[in-house]
């Protein structure tokens, strides 16, 4: 490999890789969106996920790192966390209801298309 090509490659520490993977798993973003956001080559980041997945490297969970802090927390922090969790539950319930409405609208659209075109669009349950 020529010197110019070697200088083009970025080298990331193992600590940085694990930190990025942990953040990626917590984010819920796609691999490509996460890599673009952090300026990491998509192929490189994809390789990291596959490598660490195949090696069964366990990434530390956030709750594991704060076990000692649990005993020292005050009522206010529990109230704040409880309020945040309730807010998150409401957001998820709203998203679930929206998803149900989307499914209902999709089913209605398929029904109308089946009636209009006089064809069966849905897969039959007994089909092979």
Automatic annotation (TrEMBL):
<dbReference type="GO" id="GO:0003677">
    <property type="term" value="F:DNA binding"/>
</dbReference>
<dbReference type="Pfam" id="PF01527">
    <property type="entry name" value="HTH_Tnp_1"/>
</dbReference>
<protein>
    <submittedName>
        <fullName>Transposase</fullName>
    </submittedName>
</protein>
<dbReference type="GO" id="GO:0004803">
    <property type="term" value="F:transposase activity"/>
</dbReference>
<feature type="compositionally biased region" description="Basic and acidic residues">
    <location>
        <begin position="70"/>
        <end position="80"/>
    </location>
</feature>
<dbReference type="InterPro" id="IPR002514">
    <property type="entry name" value="Transposase_8"/>
</dbReference>
<dbReference type="GO" id="GO:0006313">
    <property type="term" value="P:DNA transposition"/>
</dbReference>
<feature type="region of interest" description="Disordered">
    <location>
        <begin position="57"/>
        <end position="80"/>
    </location>
</feature>
<dbReference type="InterPro" id="IPR009057">
    <property type="entry name" value="Homeodomain-like_sf"/>
</dbReference>
């Amino acid at each position: 490999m020529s010197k110019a090509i070697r200088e083009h490659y970025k080298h990331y520490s193992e600590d940085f890789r694990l930190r990025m993977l942990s953040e990626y798993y917590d984010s819920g973003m796609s691999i490509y969106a996460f890599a673009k956001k952090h300026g990491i080559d998509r192929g490189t980041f994809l390789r990291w996920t596959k490598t660490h997945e195949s090696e069964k490297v366990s990434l530390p969970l956030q709750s594991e790192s704060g076990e000692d802090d649990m005993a020292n927390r005050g009522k206010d922090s529990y109230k704040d966390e409880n309020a945040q969790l309730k807010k998150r539950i409401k957001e998820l319930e709203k998203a679930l209801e929206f998803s149900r409405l989307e499914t209902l609208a999709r089913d209605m659209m398929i029904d109308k298309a089946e009636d209009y075109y006089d064809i069966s669009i849905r897969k039959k349950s007994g089909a092979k």
